[in-house]
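Risk register update: the risk of archive-format incompatibility is retired. Evidence:
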Amino acid sequence: MEGPDPVPVLVSACLIGRYCRYDGRTNLDRVLERELEAAGQTPIPFCPEDQGGLGTPRPPASIERESAEAVLDGRDRVVTDCGRDVTAEFVSGARKALELCHSHGIERAYLKARSPSCGTCQTHVGGALVSGPGVTAALLRRHGIETIDVEGKRETP
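Archived output:
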């Protein structure tokens, strides 16, 4: 007798070992891998910044003044530490993440903590760490997708 079908979940690609962080490194999280396997969840890896066209590596970026919600509503921007406007790329990556969720029936996303794209509890605004989601996390939440913050780089005991 077979078990239930695996449940697809969106996972920040850096958390499952892809070298796609802004600095070209990874946040491989062995604990998350084990938790997903135990829960019968199949990770669908995705990096919104990379898929939005920024590539890897890329300059660090943060929301300019207000919030990810304001970025999505066209009232704020995402800029690199050198001042380059990368709002279009962040929003494009977020929309592609949402499309991927819809096409795979994904209702839950495990996202990298504190990322200006993926952070779910905290993100970078004006160069400071503040409460609130990143751009992708905010868009997924608007569409009823549960977002779960994952620190990354945890090892199995």
